[in-house]
Amino acid sequence: MGNFLELLTSTLTQGFLYALLAYGIYITYKILDFPDLTVDGSFPLGAAVTAVLLTHGANPYLTLLAAVAVGALAGLATGLIHVCLKVRDLLAGIITTTALFSLNLQIAGSNLTVERAVETIFTAPPTMALFGGMTLLYRKLIVSFLLVLLLKLLLDLYFKTKNGLLLRAVGDNETLVTTLAKNKGTVKILGLVIANALVALSGCVVCQEQRSFSATMGTGQMVFGLAAVIIGTTVFRKLSFVKGTTAVVAGSVLYKGCIQLAILAGLPANLLKLITAVLFLVILILGNLQKSGVKQHA
Amino acid sequence: MKKILSVLLTAILVFSLAACGSSSENEETSSEAETSAETVSESEAETPSAKYLIGICQYGEHASLDNCREGFLQGLIDSGLLTEDDFEIDYQNAGFDDAVTTQIAQSFSAENVTLMCAIATPAATACYAAAEDKDIPVIFTAITDPAAAKLDSGNVTGTSDKLPVEAQLDLIRTLQPDADVIGIVYTSSEPNSVSAIAEYEAKAVDYGFTIESIGVTAQSEVTQAVDTLISKGVDCFSNLTDNNVVGVLAAMLEKTNEANIPVYGSEVEQVKLGCVAAAGIDYYQLGIQTGIMAAKVLTGETTCENLPFETISEYGIYVNSAALSEMNITVPEEIMQKAVEASEA
Question: What is the pTM of this model?
Fold first, then answer.
């Protein structure tokens, strides 16, 4: 049972850490209706900056802000390429991601490992003062949970502001935004900036948790994020009181849970991805079958 | 509406609080375990009834890495310290996915494995990070530069698969006395390859070669890079242990065979696939060496801290006679005597 609890804890932690990335994709894909491929580059960008800062003795909490800043810049690049240079949305993201691959390696030098002696947000004194009584495993859970909760609340607040409503309007009906005498391009850029800041933040915390940066860690993150957003919103589709942000966190946790189940299944190692795919399909089918109000908790 | 949401959130909070509660219990037991660790390891060695659980995390499906794993299992037995009944294996393959590697490593920690065996660098960094909480020993293999990956101190050790670059250059010089330019394709994001290229470039001059190298970022670019190097007129290709390049070796060989340019491998599996020859390491042997180290750590004979990482000092020379004759290369007798035939008949 102890094993099960620990597995659950590490799976939830993974789900929370990557939920930050899923928030970003929720904004671009679900709200802005913009297929943003910058994610595969801005995720390792956040990790690269974090790894370099940490190995140079920077405060681990400051790296969170640094990652947000560089991620925002990556989003800004994609936004400007798309809006000002009139490059198609998919291609704009591809251009930024391709450039970031080299940039990330320039920043980090090569793949980087952060030594155990270096403090991370999970081991630094302020965290230890609050949660020092717990083992590292549970400290990781509580810190990542608090981060996800904080950003969820911030995002929910933001979506209610005038600016946040404009963001949603661009995704739903671009013409409406123009008739409101607002520049839809600016709104799109803003959305991309926020989204990629969140993605890079996710890269930052994943880097601190894993104590390493690798140039290829961004590969497939876009696919993961899409899956998490779609799984989450499908499962909670009929439950209107569940906010999109909550659904996305659930989707991320479910995704990581599926992989964990596949690992646990003890089948031949090469079948891992197949089992994961089957589990996703099952979740999506169950989500579609679900009648409103039948499930209160998932 | 809001109420239900807050109920959900409280439920999660309560769960995490419950988790904290149990964590303190865990900590107590783990600290108890720590204090009695030394005595336990001794008594465990005397009573073999308690099985060691070994978690093997392999980064991806790859002939060389498979050889490492099989060698590792053989090495556990070869050490003379363990029999097959002494340990259980939980083998997981991450399919070259970094995020999955992390989850595998964390599930090993949750399972309370006695030791983690990590094959290839990403697996090792993930296992070492996951092992931090419980300070589980990690034994790695197939890592070119453990010091650069910061895996040279702490409760972690293993074997490095650093290439014998000079031996390879010497072999190429002997087999192709007139060759000038060696073409190498490598992945710019693989630190192993980048450091190997630097070594090639530094040492090529001593053997009268120049190196023409192209760095790629993805597997799909490898064949393009090969085409470019062929058009630049390289006299031969030499491979590193670069996962991306080795993964499409068959496609590479198709192009080089057409252009009649020999390709030298970096280990036995590549020669089996059709490279003419290689001065390289045998990953199976490397695995055995790793397994013996693991057995020593498991039985408490020594600890990772007292066991520095090892490299293979003896490399083998592997030849593929069929490929050699196709390229009209004759191998001098003294090389043929110590070479191992690695063509798959």
Answer: 0.83
